[in-house]
Amino acid sequence: MLNYKAYFLDLDGTVYRGTTPIKEAVDFVHYLQNNGIEPFFVTNNSSMTQKQLQEKIAKMDIHVDIDHIISSSIAAANYIEEHFQGKSVYMIGENGLQDALDAKHVVRTEDIADVVVMGIDRAINYEKLATACLSIRAGAAFISTNSDHAFPDERGLIPGNGAFTKLVEHSTGVEPLFVGKPQPFMLEFIQKKYGYKKEEMIMIGDNYLTDILTGIHMGIHTAHVNSGVNRTEEVQRKNEQPTYCLESLHDWIE
Ligand SMILES: [Mg+2]
């Protein structure tokens, strides 16, 4: 399965589950690399930096260049650089978002800002939400890394960034722009940087509503893997089908 030049792999549920690697995906990455193809990794996780993600997958024997790891925080920073250069930014988020904004020399403020950007923040509080709402009511642009309402930890499903973003949206009446999956900003960024044609690109993931729809929105081929949130049978009931439904990425190793 070497028909493409740019392979975009989701991380959680596709390459690993929590801290456990998915062997079939690790083998597939090695197979691509042995054939001279360096895949990209595309995650809605905004809390971890590129370096932290690189170190995490390195422990699973996946060794990639840092530029091949794109998170929704990177997408947010790129978007702000492109559309709001020189504007002040109020951030709710963790290391991953802070690091991405700093790398683009974004001017951050703790006060009323021109742009509000939200990512998951496990130290979120009333004052942070108030500053975000006051900025947006004063006319700030409203950007959020991703719309995931919940994500799993050991205890079960806990609130995701989309839940807090919804709170700010509800209070202000202003809809955010989401830059993570299923919006195609992360893929567009890579396409622009490396000049791939759409027919050379494929998005691979376990989640229909994020990964597969990202590829469909982008107009590229998609592959669903049966290793994470959506089972193959669920995906096959959807109107718009992925290009491929795979049991695992071992299906593609010759
Ligand atoms: Mg996933």
What does this structure look like?
45% of the residues are buried. The chain has two domains: 111 residues, Rossmann fold, CATH 3.40.50.1000; 95 residues, HAD superfamily/HAD-like (Rossmann fold). It has nine helices and 15 strands. The protein starts with 5 loop residues before the first strand and ends in an 8-residue tail after the last strand. The model has no long low-confidence stretch (mean pLDDT 96). It is of the alpha/beta class and 254 residues long. The strands form four sheets. Strands 5-4-1-13-14-15 form a six-stranded parallel sheet, sandwiched between helices. It has a five-stranded parallel sheet with strand order 7-6-8-9-12, sandwiched between helices. It has a two-stranded antiparallel ribbon with strand order 2-3. Strand 4, helix 2 and strand 5 form a beta-alpha-beta unit. The site of magnesium ion has 8 residues, from loops.
Q: Supply the number of helical segments.
A: 9
Biggest beta sheet attributes: 6 strands, parallel
Helix content: 25-40%
Quote the distance from N terminus to C terminus.
Answer: 7 Å
Q: Specify the CATH homologous superfamily of the largest domain.
A: HAD superfamily/HAD-like
> How do the strands line up in the largest sheet?
5-4-1-13-14-15
Spans of 5+ residues with little confidence (pLDDT < 50)?
A: none
Number of domains: 2
The share of residues in extended strands comes to: 15-25%
Nearest-angstrom radius of gyration?
A: 18 Å
CATH class of the largest domain: Alpha Beta
N-to-C order of helices and strands: EEEHEHEHEHEEHEEEHEHEHEHE
Structural class comes to alpha/beta
Name the overall outline: globular
Named CATH architecture of the largest domain: 3-Layer(aba) Sandwich
Would you count the extended β strands for me? 15
Bound molecules: magnesium ion
CATH-defined topology of the largest domain? Rossmann fold
Mean pLDDT: 96
